[in-house]
């Protein structure tokens, strides 16, 4: 091979070598870019993992703060409840069967409340009491001055009592009105709603005594209450004639123009089917009392606007009532003709216009007995 030929070959080799250089550079750049991209991806992945860890840490921190807040609130609430419980005075407790007349009452030795308090210990479902009605109740009363308590015997009869709603002491009237028959009420009455600053010495109540009453409401009677049974024809002649009347109004009593009978007369005009009246029990009745001599009404529950309550057989009413009404049944209407000996005696009753020689006529609707 000649020198020229070698030179020519040498040139071709250089040209080939020169043509392959740029391609090699491009490959290296692509590899660098790929490596950079992989690096960025790894960094992004690491950043994402770190961000996720930071967010998880923040969530855990928030949960810890929330839990701590709940614990604080609960602890504070329990502490407050404990303070309230510890500072709240003990309450009055009452036990014993409804209507028994002798509930057991425990009153704490703390200062009584300064305002009227009424609690319904037993919820009744009977008629609702209204002002002016006659309520029948078992009532037990105590005085309470913060250090001592004393049962008020005169108010705690241990048996049913008639109470006119609106005509007792203020605290009792307010508590009775709107209550239901069948309810047991615990009533705490400060002096201003009871017997005032003077109290009532006859009951042993001072002007500083708070009253505690336990009241079992047994019944109620409106002014329209009347006998309800089977009418019966008059069995005797020469007695006053009695006309029927609408509920709430008195029957008309017509006195014959003859001399009255000398002995006690009793006639059943309506036969009731309720419980029999027993000696010593409370009788709830409507009645009209008329003087035979004048024909004038001297006493009437119908005119007063409400039924009346009396204890029978114990001398609380006139002898004619005691002797004839025991054994009669609730729901009955009875006509009584009462001579002076079985009425007001020879003294009569001047304030009622009754002389010592007056015979009396009564029409009595027996509503109930307790």
Helices and strands in order, then pairings?
Elements: H1 3-87, E1 93-95, E2 104-106, E3 117-122, E4 134-144, E5 149-151, E6 161-164, H2 170-176, E7 184-189, E8 210-221, E9 230-231, E10 241-243, E11 252-254, E12 265-271, E13 282-291, E14 297-300, H3 301-304, E15 308-311, H4 319-325, E16 333-338, E17 360-369
Antiparallel strand pairs: 1-2, 3-7, 4-5, 4-6, 4-8, 7-8, 9-12, 10-11, 12-16, 13-14, 13-15, 13-17, 16-17
Order of helices and strands: HEEEEEEHEEEEEEEEHEHEE
Number of strands: 17
Structural class: alpha+beta
Radius of gyration: 49 Å
What is the terminal-to-terminal distance? 155 Å
What is the count of distinct domains? 3
Work out the helix count.
Answer: 4
Please give a handful of descriptors for the protein shown.
3 domains, 26% strand, alpha+beta, 7-stranded antiparallel beta sheet, 370 residues, elongated, Chitinase A, domain 3, 6-stranded antiparallel beta sheet, disordered N terminus
């Amino acid at each position: 091979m000649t020198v020229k030929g070698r030179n020519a070959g040498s040139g071709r080799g250089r040209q080939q070598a020169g043509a392959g250089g740029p391609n090699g550079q491009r490959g290296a750049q692509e590899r660098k870019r790929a490596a950079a991209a992989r690096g960025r991806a790894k960094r992004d992945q690491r950043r994402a993992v770190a961000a996720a860890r930071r967010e998880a840490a923040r969530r855990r921190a928030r949960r810890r703060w929330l839990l701590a807040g709940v614990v604080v609130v609960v602890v504070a609430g329990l502490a407050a409840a404990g303070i309230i419980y510890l500072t709240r005075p003990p309450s009055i407790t009452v036990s014993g069967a409804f209507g028994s007349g002798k509930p057991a009452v425990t009153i704490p030795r703390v200062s009584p409340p300064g305002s009227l308090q009424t609690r319904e210990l037993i919820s009744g479902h009977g008629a609702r009491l209204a002002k002016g009605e006659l309520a029948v109740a078992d009532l037990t009363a105590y005085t309470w001055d913060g250090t001592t308590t004393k049962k008020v015997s005169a108010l705690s009869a241990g048996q049913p009592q008639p109470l006119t709603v609106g005509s007792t002491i203020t605290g009792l009237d307010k508590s009775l009105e709107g209550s239901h028959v069948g309810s047991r009420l615990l009533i705490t009455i400060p002096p201003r709603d009871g017997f005032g600053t003077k109290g009532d010495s006859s009951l042993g109540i001072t002007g500083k005594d708070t009253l505690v009453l336990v009241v079992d409401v047994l019944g109620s009677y409106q002014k329209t209450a009347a006998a309800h049974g089977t009418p019966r024809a008059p069995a005797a002649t020469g007695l006053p004639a009695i006309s029927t009347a609408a509920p709430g109004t008195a029957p008309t009593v017509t006195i014959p123009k003859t001399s009255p009978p000398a002995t006690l007369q009793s006639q059943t005009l309506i036969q009731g089917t309720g419980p029999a009246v027993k000696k010593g029990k409370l009788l709830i009745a409507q009645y009209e009392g008329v003087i035979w001599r004048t024909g004038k009404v001297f006493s009437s529950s119908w005119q007063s606007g409400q039924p009346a309550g009396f204890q029978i057989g114990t001398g609380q009413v006139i002898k004619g009532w005691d002797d004839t009404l025991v054994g009669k049944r609730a729901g009955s209407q009875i006509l009584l003709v009462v001579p002076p000996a079985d009425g007001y005696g020879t003294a009569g009753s001047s304030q009622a216009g009754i002389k010592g020689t007056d015979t009396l006529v009564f029409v009595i609707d027996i509503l109930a007995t307790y």
